[in-house]
Amino acid sequence: MEISRTIGEARELISQFKSSGQTIALVPTMGALHKGHLSLIRQAKKRADHVIVSIFVNPEQFGPNEDFDTYPRELEDDLEKCRLEGVSLVFAPDRDAVYDEEKFLSINIDSLNQHMCGGSRPGFFEGVLLIVNKLFNIIQPDVAFFGQKDIQQFQIISIMVREFNHNIELVMAPVERANDGLALSSRNSYLSVDERTTAPGLYRALQFIEKQVKGGVHTPKLLIEHQKSELEAKGFRIDYLDMFSFKTLQPVYTLQENKKYIIAGAVWLGKTRLIDNILIEL
Ligand code: PAF
Question: Which parts of the chain have pLDDT scores under 70?
Answer without folding.
Answer: none
